[in-house]
Write a structure and sequence with these properties.
Layout lengths: L1 H12 L9 H63 L2 H8 L7 H17 L5 E5 L4 E6 L5 E4 L8 H6 L5 E4 L13 E9 L6 E10 H8 L9 E5 L5 E5 L3 H13 L1 H10 L2 E8 L2 E8 L7 E7 L1 H7 L1 H41 L15 H43 L1 H16 L3 H19 L5 E3 H18 L4 E7 L7 E3 L4 H12 L6 E10 L2 E8 L6 H12 L7 H12 L6 E6 L3 E9 L4 H4 L1
Parallel strand pairs: 13-15
Antiparallel strand pairs: 1-2, 1-6, 2-3, 4-5, 5-6, 7-8, 7-11, 9-10, 10-11, 12-14, 15-16, 16-18, 17-18
Helix pairs in contact: 2-9, 2-10, 3-4, 11-17, 12-13, 13-14
């Protein structure tokens, strides 16, 4: 007993257990160790960070939504500003250089602006500056007013001009004592351009009260305890939104006290969260900066709000303990099934193999022994399956190629057409051509049959093509010219039978005849090192690469109308054991060249 225990400990110390006998206790040990360790780490980590992380994420999401809403509101104001300066009356008034130039037109402009502000509550007032030193103001709560103001003295004038029509935003741009308002005002400022020639006519200023900014995002807070602040590009407070006056005072004090820290954070990152202290209380501050006008959106929440959320961890602890107990109970069944189930699956697969169903076992083995057994069985099944499929496929291909070769040899329609041509020549008294045609036809079929042999010489193959073209030249006079270029020494080289004639037939019927004028078919044979190169080329209509692929695809789908390219390729593939011996080069209008690079010599089985 002690010896077995020592061996078990030694086996565990050197790595995972290699024997099935040690798998169950080792698995139980791992399950218990994993669940207990995981429970401890989860509780410890979640107790420290979960509530804080959730609040930070929710705050950042809220702040992002607030910025999106504010951006949308500013964009709406931008669209309204385009409507204002595009008004025909305002354009005509400013083109005269003076907003006082026509009182009737002024009245129309005032009425238009007032109606617009009534329809769009976010606009508090609209100010129009001309180049004559006047300002024309229309507000929701007061009558239109006129003032003598030199716009060039405004601190923002140079930036507005340099922006070339793009708007800028400025905080609390008041124009005088009459503009006294509660809260802050954001001024939307842009050039007014002539809509005909884009010449500057004046400046448009639209005032937006901070209440409108708050209203833009008020529906996003949903009664949460978040306090929201919006700062401009100079970190001045635009909005400080709190639920009550005390919260507002705390918000302003917190922003003022930690202003330097916030500015440093704004420079370092565009978004983030940090903790700040105000007296004895601690707050979490989440911010989002950047954007089109570099405003900062800040949310502040007290740490007290997190304490209630931590209570959920107590419930979570109980849930984890229940889950751990369930895991220990279920694991006993799972571990036992992990051993028995793979063996049963392997037995079922083995029982199906004799009937021809070679099913591989795909379940992940749970032990070293099962892994070795599975791998050996799957390798055997894979090899048997591949061998059977290969034999079946090759037999199908061989039978198909043999059938196509036989059809290509017999070609009843070719024989009938040739006999018709002989009959016509005989009736016409062309006895010499009749003799020539009969001799060519007899030689063609004698060489094609070749006593049932699959292998003939290059010379015999060339002779078959010669006889075929002699017959076709009688049937299609003045349609093509045949040229043969055969090097000495190529004639006795053995090759598969009937590899050139189907290709020559394709050149004639699909290359030369559609051309509509006389063409040339060139047959060449030459010997290069250990190979013989056979080439059939024509100057017919040619083919694109897509057409070649389509032809081969159609042949592969079993829609073969003639032996053609695919039949020849399949025979050569089987004959030369998948070697790359077949090449097609073609361009539309330039003809087609098919090259066969065939090794010298053949295997003994093919000779018989």
């Amino acid at each position: 007993m002690k010896t077995r225990l020592v061996e078990s400990i030694r086996s565990l110390s050197y790595g995972k257990p290699k024997k099935l006998a040690f798998k169950i206790p080792f698995a139980y040990f791992l399950v218990i160790l994993f669940t207990v360790g995981l429970s401890y780490m989860v509780l410890d980590q979640m107790a420290a960070n979960s509530a804080q992380k959730k609040i930070n994420e929710a705050s950042l999401q809220t702040v992002t939504s607030i910025r999106t809403n504010v951006d949308l509101m500013i964009e709406n104001v931008n669209n309204y500003s385009k409507m204002i300066f595009s008004d025909r009356n305002l354009q005509n008034l400013l083109r005269q250089g003076d907003v006082y130039a026509n009182l009737q037109t002024q009245s129309k402009v005032s009425s238009y602006l007032y109606n617009l502000m009534q329809a769009v509550p976010i606009i508090d007032s609209v100010h129009i500056y001309d180049h004559a030193g006047h300002r024309f103001t229309v507000a929701t709560q007061e009558l239109p007013t006129y003032m003598e103001v030199d716009i060039k003295d405004a601190p923002w004038y140079d930036q507005v001009v340099s922006n070339k029509g793009k708007y800028i935003l400025r905080l609390d741009n008041r124009r005088g004592p009459a503009d006294s308002v509660d809260g802050n005002i954001v001024s939307f400022i842009r050039l007014i351009r002539d809509i005909d020639n884009t010449a500057p006519l004046g400046v448009l200023v639209i005032d937006i009260k901070d209440d409108a900014l708050v209203q833009a995002y008020s529906n996003l807070q949903n009664g949460s305890s978040l306090q929201i602040a919006i700062l401009d590009e100079n970190n001045q407070t635009i909005v400080a939104d709190a639920t009550d006056e005390q919260g507002s005072a705390v918000l302003h004090e917190l922003l003022d006290t930690n202003k330097a820290m916030l500015e440093e954070q704004f420079q370092q990152k565009d978004s983030g969260s940090l903790s700040m202290n105000l007296g004895s209380r601690k707050y979490t501050v989440t911010y989002l900066s950047g954007g089109a006008y570099n405003w900062k959106f800040v949310s502040i929440s007290p740490h007290d709000s997190m304490e209630s959320r931590n209570q959920s961890l107590v419930v979570l602890t109980l849930v984890l303990l229940i889950i751990n107990g369930t895991i220990f109970f279920v694991s006993s069944f799972v571990i036992s099934r992990s051993i028995i189930k793979p063996i049963q699956k392997l037995l079922r697969a083995m029982n199906k193999a004799p009937s021809g169903n070679f099913m591989k076992v795909t379940t992940e083995p749970s032990s070293f022994e099962l892994e070795q057994l599975y791998n050996g069985y799957n390798r055997m099944i894979e090899q048997i399956d591949q061998l059977v499929k290969r034999v079946i496929e090759e037999q199908k291909t061989i039978r198909k190629a043999e059938l196509n070769a036989l059809q290509s040899q017999i070609k009843p329609h070719f024989l009938y057409n040739t006999l018709d041509s002989i009959t016509s020549l005989a009736l016409s008294g062309e006895n010499e051509q009749v003799c020539e045609l009969i001799e060519a036809l007899g030689s063609y079929y004698r060489l094609s049959v070749s006593k049932g042999q699959d292998v003939i010489t290059v010379g015999e193959e060339i002779e078959i093509v010669r006889n075929y073209l002699i017959i076709q030249s009688v049937r299609y006079p003045d349609v093509f010219e045949a040229r043969f270029e055969v090097e000495e020494g190529c004639d006795p080289i053995p090759i598969p039978k009937l590899v050139l004639q189907p290709l020559v037939e394709n050149s004639l019927y699909h290359g030369i005849r559609p051309k509509g004028m006389k063409g040339t078919i060139r047959i060449t044979a030459k010997q290069v090192e250990e190979s013989v190169i056979l080439s059939i080329s024509d100057d017919g209509i040619g083919m694109s690469r897509e057409e070649i692929e389509q032809i081969l695809f159609t042949e592969r789908q079993g829609q073969i109308k003639s032996f053609g390219l695919w039949g020849t390729m399949e025979r050569l593939r089987i004959f030369y054991e998948d070697k790359d011996v077949f090449h097609i080069e073609s361009e539309p209008g330039s003809g087609t060249t098919i090259t066969l690079i065939l090794p010298n010599g053949v295997d003994a089985p093919w000779k018989s």
